[in-house]
Design brief:
Elements: H1 3-16, H2 26-37, E1 40-44, E2 47-53, E3 57-65, E4 77-85, E5 91-96, H3 97-115
Antiparallel strand pairs: 1-2, 2-3, 3-4, 4-5
Helix pairs in contact: 1-2
């Protein structure tokens, strides 16, 4: 990753988190740099591979988009998430990526509504999938 690209991504991420990019402390800058360097993504031929890295674990999410799968009776989008031990590489969990994303979206919406004092009620409606 080119150094100027990393700096641009750090400043963009700071804005996303509500931080003032021009007032980042050295420790905040370092934290954002580590976060960005630990995440990578590859998209090719209908397959998306995303990974994340922490001190304890490595996470890998795969997503496939196969438009022809519907004709074969399968969903056009399939996803899975594999969590591995950082030190040994031993698999710790294999999760249904779609179910994980649906739950995360609902949880994020609920937290966002809770953070706004004007929100008294939060209603989440399913669109096309059941969790």
């Amino acid at each position: 990753m080119e150094n100027t690209d990393l700096q641009t991504r750090i400043l963009k991420r700071a804005k996303e988190l509500g931080m003032n990019p021009s007032r980042l402390s050295p420790s905040q800058y370092r934290m954002l740099s580590i976060e960005i360097r630990s995440m990578s993504e590859l998209i090719r031929d209908g397959v998306k591979l995303a990974s994340s890295l922490t001190r304890q674990a490595i996470g890998v999410k795969t997503v496939t988009v196969m438009p022809g799968a519907a004709a074969l009776g399968a969903g056009t989008v399939q996803a899975s998430y594999l969590l591995l031990d950082r030190d040994t590489g031993v698999p710790l969990a294999l999760l249904d990526g779609e179910a994980l994303t649906l739950r995360r979206t609902a949880a994020t919406s609920a937290l966002a509504a809770r953070a706004r004092p004007v929100s008294y009620t939060h209603l989440t409606l399913p669109t096309n999938r059941e969790v």
